[in-house]
Amino acid sequence: MRRSSIQFADLSTGRRVLKQIGLCLDEQEILCSCRCPSTALRLSPKLLNHSTVSEIISTDQLTKTYEMGAELIHALQGVNFTVSENEYVALMGPSGSGKSTLMNLLGCLDTPTSGNYTLAGDRVDKMSDSDLAKVRNSKIGFVFQTFNLMPRLSALENVALPLVYAGISRGERNKRAAEVLTNVGLGDRMDHKPNELSGGQRQRVAVARALINNPNIILADEPTGNLDTKTSIEIMALFDDIHRKGNTVILVTHEPEIAGYAHRVVRMRDGVIESDLRQEPTASLVYSQE
Ligand SMILES: Nc1ncnc2c1ncn2[C@@H]1O[C@H](COP(=O)(O)OP(=O)(O)OP(=O)(O)O)[C@@H](O)[C@H]1O
Ligand SMILES: [Mg+2]
User: Which tens digits make up the pLDDT trace of 77-108?
Assistant: First the structure.
């Protein structure tokens, strides 16, 4: 098989699959294959056998019912949702359709009323509380619309906080937090408290906090919901970068421009998945930054 005959959806997929199958390929060749699908052939069956992309998230008939006095609110009504490693998914749908409820279940912040959730091969309902805490702390990074930062702590202390629970020494915590803050462009704002930062800077602190434990899944619930367009683009560049490094990104958004960064758009309505489509990212900064 000629090397140039391999086609990938994008550079990060190419890198990851090639690593899995132990094949060395020039990045230019992968990029060429991404950009010229008409001239590239598919992977041979032999290679495909070795390149099974693993499912990192899988839900089976997930439901969530809230009790409000005598009223039952069926927020999720049987969600079957599968995400493979290094996918970039936008979750959309009308207000009240169940997006945040689903994200909270995926992030192990809440438990379903019925159905199963398998995370990285493990059934979440079978995990002990301490295993669950470990998973939450190490595998998943959560970014919220309202940042959820501790007001009395500095940017550095906010970012270092998850490492306290991981039992890491103070010196090491501060060193790692400083590195991640520098990576998100806040090296000169580490001592600022949240109210001494702009909205975009606060969200970057929240992204840095989500990244501090090197999680492989980033869940972001309307991360740009409170930001202006320019700042939203900066935050989306961070998510692009996280995705390009091989991580899985799921983000909730109401904005089609933000969903344009993703490779797959899942739409919810009335607590179920209404549509699930793959797309070429239209707003991705992947190639311009290479
Ligand atoms: N803690 C709760 N107690 C009771 N009902 C809830 C609770 N959380 C959510 N709901 C209800 O569940 C349904 C789904 O809510 P959810 O927050 O998942 O919607 P959403 O798709 O994220 O909406 P939005 O786009 O407005 O954020 C809504 O009808 C909501 O009122
Ligand atoms: Mg919501």
Answer: 999 999 999 999 999 999 999 999 999 999 99
**Helical residues (DSSP H) of the chain, grouped into ranges:** 11-21, 27-35, 45-50, 99-106, 129-138, 155-165, 170-183, 199-211, 229-244, 256-259, 286-289
Q: Is the pLDDT of residue 216 over 70?
A: yes
What's the gap in Å between 61 CA and the centre of ligand 1? Answer: 18
pLDDT band at 145 (very low <50, low <70, confident <90, very high): confident
CA 90, 92, 94 angle in degrees (round to 5)? 170
Task: Decide if pLDDT at 129 tops 90.
Answer: no
By C-alpha distance, which of 26, 101, 65, 66 is closest to 290?
26
State pTM to two decimals: 0.80
**90: Cα separation from own chain's centroid:** 9
Ligand 1 probe mutation, 100, 110, 252, most atoms within 8 A of CB: 100
Question: CA dist 240 to 237, 245, 246, Å?
Answer: 5, 9, 10
Q: How far is CA 261 from the centre of its chain?
A: 12
> Taking CB atoms and a 6 Å cutoff, what residues make up the pocket around ligand 1?
66, 68, 73, 75, 93, 95-101
Pocket test for ligand 1, best of 101, 111, 266 (most atoms within 8 A of CB): 101
The half-sphere exposure of 194 on its side-chain side, counting CA atoms within 13 A, is: 18
pLDDT in tens, 151-207: 999 999 999 998 987 789 999 999 999 999 999 999 999 999 999 999 999 999 999
| Domain layout of the chain by residue ranges | 3-50, 55-289
Q: What pLDDT band is residue 31 in, cutting at 50, 70 and 90?
A: low
The topology (CATH level 3) of 55-289 is Rossmann fold (3.40.50)
Nearest ligand, measured from the Cα of 74 = 1
- C-alpha of residue 290 to centroid of ligand 1, in Å: 39
